[in-house]
Amino acid sequence: MTTYLSTGRQAAAPPGPAAGPPPTKQPPPRRQRDNRWGRYRQWGPGLLLISPSLLLLGVFVYGFLGWNVRVSFTSWRGLTPKYDFVWLQNYTALWNDERWMIDVRNIAIFTLVFVIGSMGLGFIMAVLLEPGVRGENIMRSVFLLPMAISFIATAIVWRWLLDNGTGENTTGLNQLFANLGLEFLRSDWHKSTSGWAVAAMALPAGWTLAGYVMTMFLAGMRGVPDSLREAARLDGASERQVFWYVTRPTIRPVGLSIVLILVHVSLKTFDLMYAIDQRNVKIDTPSLYMWFTTFDGGFYNRGATIATLLLFGVVLVIGPYIWFAVRSERT
Amino acid sequence: MWQGRGLFVALVLIAALFALPLYLPGQGDANAQRFEVYSWWTGPGEGDGLEAMIEHFTKNNPDVDFVNAAVSGGAGSNAKAILASRLLANDPPDSYQRHAGLELQDDVRSGKVQDLTQLYQEQGWHATFPQGLLDYLTIDGGIYAVPVNIHRANLTWYSPKTLRSLGIDSPPRSWNEFLQQAPSIKAQGKTPLALGPEWTQKHLLEAVLLGELGPDQYEGLWDGRMSWRSPEVTSALNTFQMVLEFTDITSAASDWQPQLDRIIDATATYAVMGDWAYTYFAITKKLGWRQDFDVAASPGTDGVFDFLSDTFTLPTGSRHPEITKTWLIECGSTEGQNLFNPLKGSIPARTDADPTPYLDYLAWDLQEWRNPDTRIVGSLAHGVVANNAWGAEIDTALVLFLQDGDAVKFAETVATRYRETK
């Protein structure tokens, strides 16, 4: 079984002269030819089947990705494409760009607050639902439902909820606080003068994704065999200890996946801020700057540079995960 | 084995079935007469105006299969993004909408639109459009667009009732006067000047610059004759900052309609806004002109008409250039303009169109537009005086200026970006 698998993996390695047997002048013995045919029969049909999608992926994802990187090295501005080569000029210009630096800071704060917030909220909800409560299915659907709503629709609702009008113009969450006698909670949200104003965007984003986090955690917790917990209990572990020493290690991979998904969602967030308060620099992010500079101003070079850096950011997060996942699958 | 093959064949068949629509005749010869006009007019009023013009056009040209390719959202910004990708792919619509002025400069320099000077001569448009407008339509020596309508940007909207209750006789005639009125308005618990999203702040900046510098220096800002570093500009920018102190910018409305709602419900006193506000007040909100709401030229701009205009073009590579020309003639005709403008709430660009359909505000507006003493200048926030690249860079500089309040840095940045994007 093991040997069979290992030949399969060798065959899947990139084909090249090095992978084959040493070249000989004589025709290869019949057995070896059979062997090759056998190998082909192993991965050939599979490759054939996925080749259309590989081709599409190659062109529409990696091809355009490469093209985008190419554009980030040009001085293309406006409706006339220009494929010159200006080295890293666009990149250095960006690091001297005040708005870009604000954007980087904003996205870091937003990611931090959003990931920690929705992980925490989702986790607490999962812990509360885990023992099995009445109407769990309904509650699960209710918590998951926000994810089915597009970010644009979410943003329109939250634009009103996060309104910071004062006096007669008080609405949304602030009005709710006022009616409950909790005026001290009143906030200017994303229009506040604080440098952390962008953190307010984590509210709608977290509202959308906390239910999803909950579902993932719940599935992870339910995946822990009861026998393991029973065994721990028999050994005299308290419920807290059972959670910490049995449940927690088993759901750690789930937690890691959630972090990755949330971080890359956060880096790419565009529509939420776009619809809540367009061009408010307090909630400006790299993806918004990319859109405005490209399509309002025609700075295709700068837009492509931002896109490349965004890709870089996502790869920095996803890369180690893929590496880790592939390694742990092999062992 | 046979089972596997069966599955494979089934998969191929299914894939072929899904791909079937691709083999059907698409936009080939069958749709040779499809005539596509691209705009961002989808809202009430503007959409109706466009429909009226299309109806008139198709009645005279029954063979044309007219496609109204209007894209909604973002006050045209969505439409412009999609248009940009179509122009880059050299797949233009048969005619598309742009604001009059330098918004079209990139299209002209990239050869995306055709010169219409000959059409202007044939139609005698050089005589029927005012010279001030023609000057702004001319880019690098040619004319590339036909204007349908005229909007005015330098206007202050207010409610006469609110003014009476505050004991104010008339709206301010200069920004200094506004700054004198504002503290007492604020003391009585009202916002002196309502603001909306970022573009309304750019719109206000434009109004303050025009009011403080006057039309000559204002125009000089956009063609390089007036230095952004001059003391006059610095002082105007300081005025702008002082005016901002009396606005609700920290809790600005999320759009221009809610911004005007604050005038209606009397929590705010003034709003600087273009005359699309008239359609909103009079038609959407059914308020009485002169009773419930009134208008004056924005402070310091009496006798100056800060205009913006929607135009249509003849793109290079249009599949039906002859039909496009007929469409452009419709856009520039008195019939077309008088069908469109009363519904859209704007006035005809032509000076010889029948003025009777234009009532209330529009009558006053038309009178100002046609008055030979009126000075016509172009709008910054609406694409007339700055090309797209510079306009977008001014947007960035402005949001940073509103953050840090550094007027000198703002002027410096705007001046530098002008040179870089010229």
Description:
The complex is a heterodimer of chains A (331) and B (422). By secondary structure, chain A is mainly alpha-helical. Chain A has a single domain, classed as MetI-like (MetI-like fold, Orthogonal Bundle), CATH 1.10.3720. Chain A is built from 13 helices and no strands. Chain A has helices spanning 2-12, 30-71, 89-95, 98-129, 136-144, 151-161, 172-179, 202-222, 226-234, 239-268, 271-276, 286-295, 300-330. In chain A, helix 1 (2-12) crosses helix 2 (30-71) and helix 10 (239-268) packs antiparallel against helix 13 (300-330). Chain B is of the alpha/beta class and 422 residues long. Chain B has helices at residues 2-23, 46-60, 77-88, 105-109, 117-123, 125-128, 131-137, 160-166, 175-187, 198-223, 231-245, 256-264, 276-284, 321-332, 334-344, 360-370, 388-404, 407-421, and strands spanning 34-39, 65-70, 95-99, 138-139, 142-143, 145-147, 149-152, 155-158, 191-193, 268-272, 294-297, 304-308, 310-313, 347-348, 375-378. Chain B has a 5-stranded mixed sheet with strand order 2-1-3-13-6, with helices on one face. A 4-stranded mixed sheet of chain B has the order 14-7-12-15, with helices on both faces. Chain B has a 4-stranded mixed sheet with strand order 9-10-8-11.
